[in-house]
Design goal:
Blueprint: E1 13-14, E2 21-22, E3 27-30, H1 37-42, H2 48-58, E4 65-68, H3 69-103
Antiparallel strand pairs: 1-2, 3-4
Bound molecules: zinc ion.
Zinc ion binds next to strand 4 and helix 3.
């Protein structure tokens, strides 16, 4: 449940995605890139541990940002959809093209 009324910035945390204030126990800490849809798609390419290593090399744990449970669930669902879309493009489309090329009669 988002905080009603005026939030206390020393006690409450703002979600990086929906920009609402929450109690700290109502979410988790993530690297900021994990929260946006477009970078979740681009983020399919380098493995997650590589991105975490890069983030750690650039900065510190202070790069971690708060995200509420609802946004975290939504982000994971979108990420799964992106990964599925990525593999469909990489596997299914070349397979269809291969079938089309093989079905063309040679002359
Ligand atoms: Zn949120």
């Amino acid at each position: 449940m988002p905080v009603e009324g005026f939030p206390d910035s020393s006690k409450h945390k703002i979600c990086i995605r929906c920009r609402r204030w929450f109690e700290p126990e109502e979410g988790g800490m993530v690297y900021p890139e994990a929260a946006t849809g477009v970078s979740a798609f681009v983020g399919v390419l380098p493995p997650r541990f590589v991105r975490i290593l890069i983030t750690k090399a650039i900065g510190s744990e202070s790069n971690l940002r708060f995200i509420c449970c609802e946004c975290l669930r939504r982000t994971r669902r979108e990420r799964t959809g992106c990964i599925v879309a990525f593999w469909v493009m990489m596997v299914v489309l070349p397979a269809i093209l291969l079938v089309l090329v093989l079905s063309v009669p040679s002359w």
